[in-house]
Amino acid sequence: MRDSLHKMPQLLRHFLAISLGNYGALAASFLISIVVTRRLGVEQFGRLSLFLMVSQVLMLVVANWTQVGLIRDGSQEFSTDGSIARTFWARLSIVAPLLTVSAAVFFSARGPLAVYLEIPEGALALVYGHFLLAFVLASLSAVLQARQQMATYGAVMFSEKAVSLLLVTVLPASVLNNPLAVVGCYATSACLISAGTVGVLGWRTFLPIRIDSAASHALLRFSLPFTLTSWAGLFGTSWLDFVVLKWSRSVADVGLYALASQLAGVIQQVTITFSTLLLPHFSALVGSGDEARIKVFVDKWLPYWFLGTSATFGLALVVAGPAVPTVFGQHFAESVPPLAILMVATTALALYNAFDPLLSAYGATWALVKITLGSVVIKLALAPVLIPPLGVAGAAISTVASYWFSAFCVLALAQSRLKVPVVQLAWLGLPVGVACAGLLLFEGRDFYAVATAGVFVSVALLAVRFRLFQKEDRMLLQELRGRAVARNGAHPAGSRSRAVRLEDVEGRG
To answer: Dihedrals φ, ψ of 435, to 5°?
Structure first.
């Protein structure tokens, strides 16, 4: 217990460093999107999204599935030997053949690929180069995480986006009106930050250069299950929507949907960060066998989180109506309806990201893999059917169906494990659904009035339905604060009084 309390300040600093780097990078990405959308316009922004799609697909197939293993095994090696060299080169020995194959396939298919992307064959080298530099930077970021250099890792995340923002801002409009120039800016930023990261780490970090077959086999065995979720991401993400949109509609539709996806992705980071915080918390509780506190947390505290995020997302959607065309340009006004639909998917993601750490802590890894694959099947089935007639709205609807399938599955799985009525938490996404319906059905002042009133009314009804903001919850919160004071030696009775309150709340639930 003392060791855990001793480590808390360091863990908190790491979390804050990652959060600052992550949200700083998101802010820079948001500004990049503003500059790029205004410079490129809808159609050229769609072409840029297709170029980046190719780079991201290569990352998913070649490298992403070994990233967690590099961090995990590298952390263990660093804690025992003070080095990560063995794990670094073991991972590279796994990825190198895939890099070679990807380069060969890319070169062999250069003709059809250039036709599909509508660029000269020589320009494909820039797209592949962007992938390689992104791979190098991601690998170096994993090394920083393995070495527990979280402040530097956060700085790297922010710096890469900040340099990209600087480049797209200073380049003249006559140069930046070509999406390939934007890809060049991104590649240059990745190159510069990678070089700087190597300088911070020092070459000795990667020495000695040798391949340890035992380390390679161990890393490969650990990473292989991740191929299912990583490669499934080829079909479960917006990249599938881009392909179908370009095939059945137009590149301009790709641009509209790309902006909607980016904006939804920024908001989704809130739920991802919360998930990162929950994993160690749930792991500790599961490890100690303290299911009572898990049930209290799920039954009493998570509803506040879900209702708060849902209300915030709903109000953000009300603001997005006039804000998107004002900020990104009037041509992108048509991105608002798919954004509204994607926000409904975001509420499902909030539910999934809250219970994914709990199920992972219980060891339900394969169940989560099956859920992911089921979600992908739904996406594959609906996207080609809905997108041709409905366009960007069809892409967003297929995403909603896919995300809510995953959300209901993890809720049902958690409910069967905890014996707590977890599935009903899905109702807490109602404020976003009301705001989305208001945007799609009404215009102008009617939309603002209906959507805003709908969000507040639904929040009030849900607060009553889930018995939130009750006296006993306030009492428990006071006891939690008292326990925090007791840890500092100011309230010796805090721990005992908290135990009593926990029993009271469990009895009420």
So the answer is: -65, -40
pLDDT tens across 123-149, in order?
A: 999 999 999 999 999 999 989 988 878
pLDDT for residue 8 is more than 60: no
Structure tokens at 463: 């607060």
Query: Residue 416 corresponds to which tokens in the numbers above?
Result: 């069967």
Q: What is the pTM of this model?
A: 0.76
Number of Cβ within 10 Å of residue 47's Cβ equals 24
DSSP assignment string, 433-456 = HHHHHHHHH--HHHHHHHHHHHHH
**CB 443 within 8 Å of CB 278:** no
Q: Does residue 246 contact residue 50 with C-beta atoms inside 8 Å?
A: yes
pLDDT band at 369 (very low <50, low <70, confident <90, very high): confident
Answer yes or no: are the C-beta atoms of 352 and 406 closer than 8 Å.
yes
- Residue 65, classified by CB atoms within 10 Å of its CB into exposed (0-12), middle (13-18) or buried (19+), is buried
SS3 467: coil
- Phi, psi angle pair for 90, to nearest 5°: -65, -45
Cβ density class 68-98: b for 16+ within 10 Å, e for less: ebbbbbbbebbeeeebbbbbbbbbbbbbeee
The alpha helices in 329-427, defined as continuous H runs, are 336-361, 365-390, 392-418
Residues 6+ apart with CB under 8 A from 240: 234, 379, 380, 383
The token duo for 268 is 């989704």
Residue type, 487: R
Provide the CA 253 distance to its chain's centre, in angstroms.
23
C-alpha triplet 373, 264, 402: angle, nearest 5°: 25
Instruction: Tell me the DSSP string of 114-163.
Output: HHHHTS-GGGHHHHHHHHHHHHHHHHHHHHHHHTT-HHHHHHHHHHHHHH
In sequence order, which residues have a C-beta less than 8 Å from that of residue 350 and are 6 or more positions away? 270, 271, 274, 306, 309, 310, 429
Structure tokens at 151: 């402040």
Integer Cα distance of 447 and 467 in angstroms: 29
106: region left, alpha or beta (phi > 0 left; psi from -120 to 50 alpha): alpha
